[in-house]
Design goal:
With about 575 residues, the protein is α+β, with helices and mostly antiparallel strands. Helix content is about 35%, strand content about 25%.
């Protein structure tokens, strides 16, 4: 009996301790909720600005309307008043007021001032309102696939708004009033104020001036060739800061088609980050980079810049035939060096390089250039691309990878790889955000360039950049040539596949270019999916890149340097 009494006493003491100590915080919150009415004080969401402070996302003042159903004495009259002021369904509002189980119900978000004034004038019991924020995008459809948008409760849904939501959102506060059990405010009650903490501002690496130039050039290309979609990215090759990222088609962020999920998903998708494609000849930059670096290292399997590739327009590998697009008639495209092969975009030459370097060496370079894995960009939904496992690669696969087939990449991956090939061989983590800061100027986070790895040496990079300058001056990239400026680049035209077969008449046209060729400051990749009327990257994408570069030259007042 004594043991039983002792056990019960200990059990009771433990329960008392749990209730009074361990559970006290939650019980205190419940008690506070029972005898107070909480009016939310909405935190202001942080702004999003470009690198120069141009505002890309901000807030306009609106209001949220709430009701404590138990405290509403005239439910029918209140429902009618709210419906008239806010434009809602009176029957639905009345049903909410009758059936609400929660202590507070949200009647409306983002209401305008005139509606609030009408409600305040009538002063219905149990209805109250608080300042709210409505997200506003001053540039409309500009950067729509990058910025993203917010939900009705102001939380980030897509894009930068989602990825950096924890910084942008802030923390709501409350205004507390003492009430009776049914939520009616007590006479003489004292209010308690818990201030809101406004969100932090996000400064992007985007340069809105360059962004506007890229969007204008992309729109002009889309008007001429009517592609299914088109994308463009502009990088700083020295830091991998993303200076512009444009997509076609676009939509107005102030008028998001929320009631059409399929359309919204398509329009808001950042394809250059999230979609993959066979790059075609733009990938030859990587193959050439690997060859030059291995030659400089003394690898006898690599080809020197003086080596002349066999003149045959075909190569046979594992029973498959690789052809050059040119018929080599009248000696055209015969006796080519690596520079000539880049100029003429001759597939058999790059087949020779891939096979000569061998699977292990070539895959080491593919890894160093970031293929088959994430770049680490600060954006959700990044695609990894598709790269065959090294152990499963046959010679015919390796041969095709050499000229940009049997491999799928994202536009971001290709742009980063090209930048790392011509900037001295430095591969950085690409990023969209430059800093996170408070409205009083306090900087929470400054994003510095982060070097991931080296790809090739500076000597090989310089040689390659010179060859790619020749492509624009003398080869397939002539339509990107700008008199007085040293532009380098490579065109690409890739066939599309559907259900495992080549889709007749469907191509992806692209061009990756950079300038100045001897010390790159800007790199642009332009991609057009299924252009109509023409499909060569040299015809569709290269002129678009030229227009972007010319826009940057005018915007930044870059003086001509002449060419060597």
């Amino acid at each position: 009996m004594l043991a039983a009494i002792t056990f019960l006493f200990c059990l009771l003491a433990a329960r008392f301790f749990y209730v009074q100590v361990a559970w006290s915080g939650e019980l205190g919150v419940r008690a506070l909720d029972q005898w107070t009415r909480e009016i939310p004080v909405v935190a202001e969401r942080g702004k999003i600005v470009d690198r120069n402070g141009v505002v890309l996302a901000e807030n306009s003042t609106s209001y949220a309307v709430f009701a404590r159903a138990n405290a509403v004495s005239d439910k029918a009259g209140t429902a009618k008043l709210l419906a008239d002021a806010l434009g809602g369904d009176e029957a639905l509002l009345l049903d909410k007021l009758h059936s609400a189980r929660a202590s507070e119900i949200t009647i409306a978000r983002h209401a305008d001032k005139s509606a609030i004034e009408k409600i305040a004038e009538a002063a219905p019991d149990g209805v109250y309102f608080a300042r709210d924020n409505t997200r506003v995008y001053p540039k409309g459809d500009s950067l729509c696939q990058v910025l993203g948008f917010t939900s009705s409760d102001n939380s980030g849904t897509t894009g930068i708004e989602k990825y950096y939501d924890k910084y942008l959102a802030g923390e709501d506060g409350e205004l507390l009033y003492e009430t009776d059990l049914v939520g009616v405010e007590l006479e003489g009650a004292v209010a308690a104020y818990l201030p809101a903490e406004d969100g932090m501002n996000v400064r992007l690496t985007i340069d809105y001036g360059i962004q506007a130039v890229a969007e204008s050039a992309l729109a002009k290309m889309a008007e001429t060739y009517s592609p299914v979609s088109a994308e463009c990215i502009v990088l700083d090759p020295d830091t991998f800061e993303i200076l512009a990222l444009a997509g076609y088609p676009s939509y107005d962020l102030n008028d998001v088609p929320r009631n059409e999920p399929e359309l919204l998903n398509s329009l808001s998708r950042n394809r250059i980050v999230s979609d993959i494609y066979e790059p075609g000849s733009t990938f030859k930059i990587v193959t050439a980079a690997a060859d030059i670096e291995e030659w400089l290292r003394g690898n006898t399997s690599a080809f020197s810049d003086k080596y002349v590739f066999p003149s045959s327009r075909t190569r046979s590998v594992d029973g498959t035939t690789v052809k050059c697009w040119s018929a080599h008639a009248n000696g055209r495209h015969c006796n080519q060096t690596l520079a000539d092969a880049l100029n003429n975009s001759c597939n058999p030459c790059f087949t020779d390089i891939a096979l000569s370097l061998g699977r292990e060496t070539f895959y080491d370079y593919l890894s160093a250039f970031g293929f088959g894995k994430a770049t680490g960009v600060d954006f959700s939904g990044e695609a990894l691309g598709m790269l065959l496992p090294e152990t499963a690669v046959r010679d015919c696969d390796l041969a095709r990878i050499g000229f940009g087939q049997t491999i799928a990449v994202s536009g971001l991956q290709l742009a980063c790889a090209a930048a790392a090939a011509v900037n001295g061989g430095y591969y950085y983590t690409p990023h969209l955000v430059k800093s996170i800061y408070a409205s009083d100027g306090y900087v929470l986070q400054e994003v510095e360039p982060a070097l991931k790895n080296r790809t090739i040496g500076e000597e090989a990079s310089g040689i390659l950049a010179g060859m790619l300058e020749g492509v624009v001056r003398d080869g397939s990239g002539k339509k990107a040539y700008i008199e007085g400026y040293r532009v380098g680049g490579k065109t690409g035209t890739a066939q599309k596949y559907e259900d495992g077969h080549i889709a007749a008449g469907k191509y992806v046209s692209s061009f990756v270019g950079f300038f100045p060729a001897d010390d790159p400051e800007y790199l642009a990749l332009v991609i057009a999916d299924e252009p109509q009327g023409a499909y060569y990257g040299s015809v569709v994408a290269a002129p678009c890149a030229k227009e972007i570069f010319e826009g940057i030259i005018a915007l930044k007042n870059i003086q001509p340097r002449g060419s060597e």
